[in-house]
Amino acid sequence: MLDIKLIRDNSELVKKNLKRRGDKEVISRLDELIKKDKKWRDLIKQVDKLKHERNVVSREIANLKKSGKDAKKEMKRAGEIPRKLKSLEEERLALENTCRDLLLRIPNMLHESVPCGKDDSDNKVVRKKGKVPKIKNPKDHMQIAQELGLVDRDRGNKVAGHGFLYLKGKLAILDLALQRYAIDFLMKRGFNLVEPPFMIRKKIAAGATDLSDFGDVLYKIDGEDLYPIATSEHPLVGMFAGETLLEKDLPVKLVGVSPCFRKEVGTHGKYTKGLFRMHQFNKVEEFVFCKPEQSWQIHEELQKITEELLDSLGLCYRVVNVCTGDIGIIAAKKYDVEFWMADGEYRELSSNSNATGYQARRLGIKYKEKDGSVAKGFVHTVNNTAVATSRIMVAILEQFQQDGSVIIPKVLHKYCGFKEIKKK
Fold first, then answer.
1. CA–CA distance from 175 to each of 90, 226, 349, 376 (Å)?
2. Domain residues of the chain, as ranges?
3. Which residue in 138, 214, 271, 283 has the most C-beta neighbors within 10 A?
4. Which tens digit of pLDDT belongs to each residue from 147-188?
């Protein structure tokens, strides 16, 4: 979330930045927050004034009694103060909760380089990499996978419903191979491997992601304060919730591997075929905690690493700078990688976001110079999808299809144990 001091001291600057998103509801929410925050601060002054009055009256009563004078009037006045204090404290606490709820719904400040736009059609193409495959009468990945006996969608639907399927044989091996290849690729670049919990508490999830995700994205465990994770990003950022890191240890570079579970509500009109948009898939995630002055450089470094990984697989893709209407509330700037598909369209493969101090402030993650020193501020967090295996497999199946078989990228041969997938 944003620093409330920034909103108090530079409300017009914040409002000007948020207006770029083209969301009138956000501006209305900001105005409401400013109004209620002022009322909350006024209540604190009233509470402090009453407490001071209570101390003054207590001294007056003591002095009157000591001198043998009547203190009934002062005692009556003193007796009314606790009731007034209780009422003011209750109002203050209610306003404090309201202000925090509003603050959690105010988006991050956007970087000046984020392009303006209404939706993903307005995202700005930064560069294109790889050659568009020349395939005569290309098939989509599900047709290929079913012809090669690599998936069982009908039984997946029977067992778990729409959006679930069975991966079989060499496709299941390819899934595992992609995970291990990405892990090795990142560990060689200084990332430390973490397998996080696959469940997350609401307090941590609310710090890591947009609150609307609780309805649109996250599954809920009945009777428990637990949600199956939508990405390892969320438990990774929650790892240091409420902690203060040492400056000498920054940046902390993690690679998280986990299954991901997503309800995918609100995807009407989007491409949902086959493996592309599943309710369960595996992902390898890059996550970095760093000093504020490091985050923009690290954001670009993570993008470079992901592109090197995709280049090593020989994929055709493009990088887009995500526009104001498509970026979501967490990121100050986001790059998406979109890969070429057999129908000639480019669709999202991965996302790379600089959340600046937004997540860290929600979760209370600070940094300090050394033990015993005062915290210097909140860390910045940067997250990037290294490999979402289901979509990478879509790319491999569609881009490397060849006469009824699929050629496996050379770098994966030692992880797979095979060089191609073909009919038995």
1. 54, 27, 15, 42
2. 4-104, 120-422
3. 283
4. 999 999 999 999 999 999 999 999 999 999 999 999 999 999
CATH assignment of 4-104? 1.10.287.40
Phi, psi of 190, deg, nearest 5:
90, 10
Higher pLDDT, 69 or 346: 346
Q: What is the pLDDT of residues 19-65, one digit of tens each?
A: 999 999 999 999 999 999 999 999 999 999 988 888 888 888 888 87
- Indicate the angle between helix axes 295-313 and 389-399, nearest 10 degrees: 40
Residue 354 pairs in a beta bridge with 333, 382
Rounded to a whole number of angstroms, the distance between the first and last alpha carbons of the chain is 54
152 forms beta bridges with: 166
pLDDT at 112: 97
What is the CA angle 401-403-409, rounded to 5? 35
Compute the average pLDDT of residues 308-321.
Answer: 98
| DSSP string across 151-176 | EEHHHHHHHH-TT--EE-HHHHHHHH
CA separation for the pair 9, 270 (Å, rounded):
41
The position carrying tokens 């600046």 is: 356
Copy the structure tokens of residue 4.
């409330």
Residue 150 to residue 402: CA distance in whole angstroms:
16
In the predicted structure, residue 215 carries a pLDDT above the cut 90: no
Please state which of the four CATH numbers 3.40.50.800, 3.30.930.10, 3.10.450.350, 3.20.20.70 is assigned to the domain occupying 120-422: 3.30.930.10
Express each pLDDT in 69-78 by its tens digit.
887 787 888 7
- Radius of gyration, CA atoms only, the chain: 27
- What are 400-405's contacts with CB under 8 Å, separation 24+? 400/133, 400/314, 401/135, 401/138, 401/139, 401/144, 401/342, 402/135, 404/147, 405/148
* CA neighbor of 166 nearest in space, from 181, 182, 149, 179: 149
Residue 261 to residues 218, 277, 278, 314, Cα–Cα distance (Å): 7, 11, 8, 28
For residues 285 and 352, the answer to whether their CB atoms sit within 8 Å is: no
Pairing mode, if any, of strands 366-368 and 244-246?
parallel
- Segment holding 416, helix H or strand E: helix 413-416
Residue 267 has pLDDT above 70, yes or no: no
